[in-house]
Amino acid sequence: MSAQPDLLYSEEEEALRAAVRDLLADHCDVPGVIARTESDASHDREAWKALADGMGLAGLLVPEALGGQGATHREAAVVLEELGRAVAPVPYLTSAVVATEALLACGADDLLAELASGRKVGALAVALNVAPGGAYKVVRHEGGALHGELTGIADAAAADVLLVPADDGGLYAVDTTAATVTPQVSLDLTRPLAVITLDGAPGRLLGDAEPAVRRALRAGAGLLASEQLGLAEWALTETVRYLKERKQFNRPVGGFQALKHRLAQLWLEVVNLRAAARNAADALSTGDDADLAVTVAQAFAAPVAVHAAEEAVQLHGGIGMTWEHPAHLYLKRAKADSIAYGTAGAHRETLAALVDLQAP
User: What is the mean pLDDT of the segment spanning 258-262?
Assistant: First the structure.
């Protein structure tokens, strides 16, 4: 039996957090993110370049021999906490985690090296709402070319290469220039969705789609919990700060007992989410009971992140309802994340099967 995991943050992880937070403070300030969501350029390419090229974070999960950092999911989780805290519009989860994991399963070394360096952005052409092990749509492979349409693909607009599952069971690399990428209406404008249309696009066979997609979605679901943790922590911290400053009847609003109880309840939920998210990241890095840890984290994460964002909007009062305040960005990201890589309900059903505890 393996030793009990240490879920506390190491000194290296805390140093990584500080560096990422400093970078995001320079590149992803709140007014900038809000302005970007109101423009046609939702992705922040400068912030992505600084993360990928400047700090080498796109290659955290890629072995050093292929130009990556050779780190673990724990370090990637710390990065995602900070990206969630900043609702950063960068394709980190989709490219540096999900697409990278799919390529690791296929052994596509040259593409891995390009994703690790940040020279290219990858996107797995599976709808964002598909859970690990869930059914996903495939395109037709005929005469050496790919035909079909895939919807709900996150960050496809930022991608240089699409990893497309086909009906022959293969996973194909398709250059984005060979596909038609059409934006879809998306609640969360910091992680936009798109429709991918392939009309005879050439594709390079990478390997078997099913194990690659399953591995990629499991890592995506597990590390999404860390993004949801960062989002929830921001919501709690900012709400507490605001309620200490905001006065009513000549005393801080945060001193009222009813609000204290709401914040205490939220704090407990966030602390428990941190434990679940850290456990998922650690399990992914060691391979010990990873399916179980990821499912537990996702069954718990979505309701907490949504609750935290809702409380931030409500407890900020009138200012929390405005477009100028960032609370709406966090609520939209939390709601979109709540159906990404499987809903909490779907994960609870999976969890029941994993621990052999069926509903009556």
Answer: 80
Q: What are 31's strand-pairing partners?
A: none
Strand partners, 175: 161
Residue 247 has phi, psi (to 5 degrees) of -115, 145
Tell me the pairing of strands 247-248 and 251-252: antiparallel
Cα-only R_g, the chain: 20
> What is the arithmetic mean of pLDDT over 127-142?
95
Rounded to an integer, the average pLDDT of 154-179 is 96
Q: What is the DSSP string of 283-315?
A: HHHH-TTHHHHHHHHHHHHHHHHHHHHHHHHHH
- The pLDDT of residue 1 is 42
**Residues near 203 by beta carbon (within 8 Å), at least 6 away in sequence:** 141, 145, 146, 164, 166, 172, 173, 174
Say how far apart CA 92 and CA 39 lie, in whole Å. 20
What does the pLDDT average to over 242-259?
69
Number of Cα atoms under 13 Å in the Cβ half of residue 112: 22
Q: Name the phi and psi angles at 145, rounded to 5.
A: -130, 160
Q: Which residue has the higher pLDDT, 204 or 251?
A: 204
Under DSSP, the state recorded for 318 is G
Q: What average pLDDT does the chain have? A: 90
Longest dimension (CA), the chain: 75
Q: Side-chain half-sphere of 96: how many Cα atoms within 13 Å?
A: 33
